[in-house]
Write a structure and sequence with these properties.
The chain contains five helices and 14 strands. The chain is 13% helix and 45% strand. The chain has one domain: outer membrane lipoprotein receptor (LolB), chain A. Strands 1, 2, 3, 4, 5, 6, 7, 8, 9, 10, 11, 12, 13 and 14 form a 14-stranded mixed beta sheet that branches. A hairpin with a 5-residue loop joins strand 2 and strand 3. By secondary structure, it is mainly β.
Length: 261
């Protein structure tokens, strides 16, 4: 376990008393982008393979993944009051839909893993700092909203970055602060490159994750949702007679308005 003294974090980021300054000029632009709900994000995590992509526009959010430069694979989609997941049957792409008011219902099949699909629609935890109220993102009740604590220089892997730091208090049942999560947003030439998440506890800190930002852009491609068109949509497994007979109920297709119709 890679533990250091908390002071090392603040010294490396130049956030000791008197050194704090305003956020990077680009921080507000990224924050507005995420909060206004029009962006395309591509990212990965240090130490993990694969690339993740999230596209949000016009009340829709699509999440897909890519491994080793292969085609993007659809994972989850949300629009209106429904979420969708994707699968293949007879070599054909298909989708299942679930109204939000049925999410968590006891009648849902555990084999369809709707929890994981909802989680996939959430902003990466590291970036949710800039949009704490994101519709699809939830936070533990013990975690306070982030506060900007300062900005300075930081060297990571022999490269120098402009660093904005945000800190969330972790509160115990008595209401006291038992620890903190610190998020270091690392910029180079005005572009957000990485976000590092740390646990601060009892005078020590532990690096929990490093999110690598490949792309974060407010210009969403016109064909960003084109891969969804004409995909047949079936109702989520509810354990009724149709599901027992393995005859899923088709609701329509994705396409046009991108709603099942």
């Amino acid at each position: 376990m890679n533990w250091k003294k908390i002071a090392a974090v603040f010294m490396a980021c130049g956030l000791m008393t008197g050194a704090a300054s305003a956020q990077q000029p680009e921080a507000e632009s990224y924050q507005n982008m995420l909060q206004q709900g029009k962006f395309q994000l591509e990212y990965s995590y240090a130490g993990e393979s694969g690339l993740n992509r999230m596209t949000t526009d016009k009340g829709m959010r699509l999440v897909d993944k890519q491994q080793d430069g292969e085609d993007w694979n659809l994972e989850a989609f949300a629009v209106g009051d429904k979420i969708y997941q994707f699968y293949y049957e007879d070599d054909k792409q298909r989708a299942k839909s679930l109204p939000l008011n049925l999410f968590g219902s006891d009648v849902l099949s555990p084999d369809e893993h709707w929890d994981s699909k909802k989680q996939a629609l959430a902003l990466p935890d590291e970036l949710s700092v800039l949009n704490w109220q994101d519709k699809w993102t939830s936070h533990p009740g013990s975690l306070a909203a982030p506060n900007f604590t300062g900005s300075s220089k930081r060297t990571v892997d022999d490269a120098e970055y402009d660093c904005d730091q945000y800190v969330c208090d972790i509160r115990n049942q008595a209401g006291g602060v038992s620890g903190q999560l610190a998020y270091n947003f690392l910029y180079h030439d005005g572009k957000l490159m990485k976000v590092q998440k740390y646990l601060l506890h009892k005078g020590q800190e532990q690096l929990l994750s490093t999110l690598m930002v490949v792309k974060l852009d407010g210009a969403v491609p016109e064909d960003a949702f084109a891969s969804l068109e004409k995909i047949p949509v079936y109702r989520a497994d509810m354990g009724d007679i149709n599901d027992l007979l393995d005859v899923p109920v088709q609701e329509g297709t994705l396409g046009g308005s991108l709603n099942a119709n």
